[in-house]
Amino acid sequence: MPHVHPTAIVDPQAELGEYVEVGPYSVIEAGVTLGAGCQVGPFCRFQGPTTIGTGNRFMSHCSIGVQPQDLKFKGDPTRLEIGDNNFFREFVTLHRGTPGGGGVTRIGSHGLYMVGSHIAHDCQVGDNVIFANNGTLAGHVHVGNFATVGALTAVHQFCYVGEYAFLGGGTIATKDCLPFMKVVGSRPARCFGPNSIGLERKGFSEERRDAIKKAWRFLHSPKLTAAEAIARIESELTDAPDAMRLVEFMRASERGVILGRG
Fold first, then answer.
1. What pLDDT score does 262 carry?
2. Residues labelled as active-site residues
């Protein structure tokens, strides 16, 4: 059975799974589903429609599933979906989607969202991500699995952050961020090549890391245009799936990609 503190308010139309804990002064409104084993600290607010998987922890003062910060939003029946085993620290904010963005904001599983992280409407965030303090996504941003968004970093609306990307603290990303790479800086941000230490820690073999480094040398070369660099990667690294993923990512980009060409 759930354990709800006497000062908490839980709407009868909310659904709490087994072993859910709700701390003092938290509010869980109608249309919210909390999966088994979730822990809600004090002074949190949950608004629906929001579906939350199992084993998630919300430290305190979190605002989850509230309406998007979009002037066009008129109370439409949009939603927030959260996976399993995430850890949301103090003052994290996660907003529902908008009709113009597909109607749903999705958060994956096994993520760490540090103090003040903000995920805006219609974002799609993968698994095993890390958001440092005040890492912020504008609307419609996609973040791949195992990506890291540094402290005080902001990602512009409609941008894509590739899997295993590392965005350093204070970065302002107004274009797409390549998978496997480090992006740092403000107006303009620059790509500083492969996130080698992070990839090694995630179990990437030396062969995989070397292929990514070689692809980066083509992309970073002042002697090659982006199109020429892509052609070289396709010609010389066709058997390296990670290099081909970089090509796929660049071809799909609509906002352009952050590179380190000054």
1. 43
2. 121-122, 139
